[in-house]
Amino acid sequence: MSGSTVLIVDDEHTLARSAKAFLADHGYEAEVASTGEQALELLERLQPDVVFADVRLPGMSGLDLLKRIRDFDPVIPVIMVTAYGSIEGAVEAVKLGAFDYVKKPVDLEELKLLADRARENRLLKQELSYYRRRATRDVGLEGLVGESPAIRAVLERARQIAALDETPPVLLTGETGTGKGLLAHAIHASGSRAVKAFIEVNCTALPATLMEAELFGYERGAFTDAKESKPGLVEAAEGGFLFLDEIGDVDLSVQGKLLRAIEERAVRRVGSVRERKIDVHIIAATNRDLEREVRQERFRKDLYFRLAVIVLHVPPLRERGADVLLLSERFLRAFNAKYGKAVREISAPARDLMRAYPWPGNVRELSHVIERAVLWSRGPTLDVEHLSLTSPLPSDASTDHGALPPQGGDLAGWEKSMIEQAMREAGGNQTKAAQRLGISRDTLRYRLKKFGLAG
Ligand SMILES: Nc1ncnc2c1ncn2[C@@H]1O[C@H](COP(=O)(O)OP(=O)(O)OP(=O)(O)O)[C@@H](O)[C@H]1O
Ligand SMILES: [Mg+2]
Prior knowledge:
Rossmann fold; binds magnesium ion; binds adenosine-5'-triphosphate; five-stranded parallel sheet; Helicase, Ruva Protein, domain 3; alpha/beta; 455 residues
């Protein structure tokens, strides 16, 4: 439960405060807003996992707030809190996509159970999370920091791709945390389709049937739960981009349908005979070795060739020379602002250490390391002891991790063993293990599942 954030929107201070305290006692981080306007301001910073909102609020109503939250992020579960007499409002809210409602006087235990349930539900949805990012929130290719020849070459090709009106699918490869996701957004944001949709699909292992319904949509009655027809994500990306993240995880049966959609430029909803034409640019990303997956018959060869017409390989951070310093300065500024600190410089030994460190978690790991360092630092200078780098340098011969896996060993197997080790050292605590690996808890959770280490 720890680490989940709840936002409580209620102008009734006593209730809001006791709910906050109760949830905090049960491992949630809770914040209170007394108006819808205030809640919207908090939303971006807080990225709450669950929102409780009173139906009756001063100013913006609870229902309007619900709609605005839906626009911001369609997967945040919102639970409406209703006083006697405003039940209709709550029912209306559920129709509009609220997760559930709870009646006043509120039973705190019930509130917590609802939060647990909403949170679980959200995690499930995130398995196949997609959200439409507004073009304004995306940065263009200029937002990518780096001047090394390795990254410049990638950016140059990305620029060329972004300038095209028509492009074949683009495949982004590279280790975890190298910036594939960021690059995909940037390609979208720098082209003429920037004002159109950018639909992101996380292709983590999901039952093939669900994945198919999400991607291609379905017609009413196509299966028991299909009360209404629904367009899929491919259709939702019309005119814009579809970003298939972790494409290597797509089930074989869905791969065939994906290939067909790309080649025919058309989709057929589940349960429908009608072909619908689509005009969608496709970017796929993976940190797996797809060629190998093809050899092992886990990935369709024809789909691979279709996707691999344009491959952009995002190089690991350790191959980007002094970029690590440029990036740390960028992160330093950002985290100074976030935490109200004033760390102005990085000491020479710390810079040397960062240049030598292999950064297995790449840019993501670097940003976490700098965040921690800024958080713990007291003076204006960031030094070696603030960095607390989590894996040994290549020259460190005392242990065998941090070294390359033995000849013939595979990266995935190595990754798995590092994750196992981190989980062991963290006593099974996912938050700690994720920190240690320099990855997010969601990423860790996903990888645990992928390697069959979960549960
Ligand atoms: N060149 C860069 N300039 C600035 N920030 C970057 C750069 N590259 C990556 N980042 C940041 O590093 C983090 C990791 O990047 P991103 O999520 O795009 O990696 P990824 O390759 O998609 O990783 P994964 O394979 O784990 O999904 C993000 O917060 C991203 O904004
Ligand atoms: Mg990514």
